[in-house]
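Anyone opening a protein record will find just a pair of labelled lines. The record below illustrates this layout.
***
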Amino acid sequence: MKVQRKRAFVNNLLKALVISGLVIVASTNPLFGIRAITALQKDLKRKKWNDLKKGLHYLKYRGFIEVDQNPDGSYSVKPTKIGEQQAQKYVLDDIFIKIPKKWDKKWRVVIFDIPTEKQKGRLALLAKLRELRFIMLQKSVWVHPFECYSEVAVLAKAFEVDRHLNYLTCADVSAGDYLRDEFEKRNGLKLV
C-alpha cells in the first residue's frame, strides 16, 4: 500500500510538471514553485520535503525531468520528451467511463480499420477498450452503453489511430439484447 501511494505521488508529480512546463523550486523553500500546481496540492500537504526531493530525484534518474540550478540558488525543473510521453501514459491510465444513474438506451459504437503499420496503436486501443468494458460485436466493432465520445477521442489521438476510427451513437442495434445481456453479465451492472 505504501509503495502504491509513493508511485501515485510520483506519477502525479510528473503529470503536474508536464502540465506546468517549467517550475522554479527555491532552495530556501522547496515547495515554493510547486505549490502553484493544483494537481499536487493535496499530496503536498501530506508529504514532506524529503518525499518531494526523492520524487524529483527518481524522475530525474529515469530521464523524465531535467533539473538545473539557477544563479540565485533556485532550481529549474522541466519535463523531457520522454517525461511527457510517460505522463501521457499516466493520463491514459486514469481514463474511465462515467456510469449514469439511468441508461439512455443508446449504444456507443466504435468502428475502426487500422492499417498494419499502426499495429502497435491498434493493440493498445483494443487493450484499453477491453479495460473500459466495451463489448466486441465484431473484430473491429466495439460497443458500450454509456456516453464515451471524449474518452474514445483521447485514446484514438494518443495511440495515433484517430484518422482510422469512427464513433456512432445508435438507438437501435440488431444485437441489442445480446449486448445488454453480455454487458450486464460481465460487469455485474443492470442497465436500467
Residues 90 and 118 are 21 Å apart (CA to CA). The longest strand covers residues 107-112.
